[in-house]
Amino acid sequence: MLFILKQLLISCAVIIAISISASAQGWRGIVPLRSNCDAVKRVLNIDLCRTGTYEFSEGSISISFSDGTCLTGWNVPAGTVISFYVHTMPPQKLDKTFPDLSQYVKSVDTHVRNIMYYTSQDKGVTIAAAEDGTISSVFYGPTTKDSSLQCTSNGSDTPNLPLASYKFDEFRVLRKEDEERRLNNFATELNAWTTVSGYIVGYPGRQGGSDVLDRIDRIRRYLIKHGISGTRLTSITGGAREESTIELYLVIK
């Protein structure tokens, strides 16, 4: 009788574990708007949680944490994970990592050639992949079920920024060389004023929002590559506009 009871308990534990695994969102147990700094420390083996890019054995992760205010657009405690991008090295294949794309909406990047996006708002996941199926990045963010945690915008599509902020630049979709020229100017300003932070605010176009996620990530990585610490950069997604738009801000905290 004791043996049977023990087996039943083990079976129940296995069923619960499978259920939790099947319903879990996010990456390696890190779930946007649900995981805090402690969870990230355990997964990435880091001592301090700051918005920025972290290296791990198989690639890098660019992660954004809440500061406890509605500045990031979400009403969650300080230290809560808002969203993150995962880049694996070597790059993985779409059919191996995401064999079932039936729940994802496919779209084409209008700025970068040969890049496709697969977006599931219910999962909070956007995959950027080349035409040959090579994954360049995977974005994990809030899902459609998280709308109750979103801060109200008082009818404006512009996120609330600190009072001591200055709009440095604004542009829609540009040629690669034109965008990089304007980002170089932004990086020069940030390098000159080391006490100033940079905010990258992206607005998706009316036709779909998956493109702006990769634009924000590409701009962030470009600035980091040109000497700007990831801890000085904050990424925000605003409301939809007629065309995909990027705004760059200099912020004194």
Cα end-to-end separation = 66 Å
Query: In this structure, how is the largest beta sheet organized?
Result: 7 strands, antiparallel
Q: Number of domains in the coordinates?
A: 2
Report mean pLDDT, rounded to a whole number.
79
What's the β-strand tally? 11
Strand neighbour order, sheet with most strands: 1-2-3-7-6-5-4
Class computed from helices, strands and strand pairing:
alpha+beta
DSSP helical segment count: 5
Low-confidence stretches: 1-24
Beta-strand content: 25-35%
Radius of gyration of CA atoms, rounded to a whole number: 20 Å
Give the helix proportion (percent range): 25-40%
Inertia-based shape: globular
| Helix and strand run | HHEEEHEEEEEHEHEE
Characterise the protein shown here.
The protein is α+β, with helices and mostly antiparallel strands. The protein has two domains: 124 residues, no CATH class; 88 residues, OmpA-like domain (60s Ribosomal Protein L30, Chain: A, 2-Layer Sandwich), CATH 3.30.1330.60. 26% of the residues lie in helices and 28% in strands. It contains five helices and eleven strands; from the N terminus they run H-H-E-E-E-H-E-E-E-E-E-H-E-H-E-E. The strands form two sheets. Strands 1-2-3-7-6-5-4 form a seven-stranded antiparallel β-sheet. The protein has a four-stranded mixed β-sheet with strand order 8-11-9-10, covered by helices on one side. Strand 4 and strand 5 form a beta hairpin. The longest helix has 22 residues. It starts with a helix and ends with a strand.
Concise structural overview:
The chain is of the alpha+beta class. It has five helices and eleven strands, in the order ααβββαβββββαβαββ. 26% of the residues lie in helices and 28% in strands.
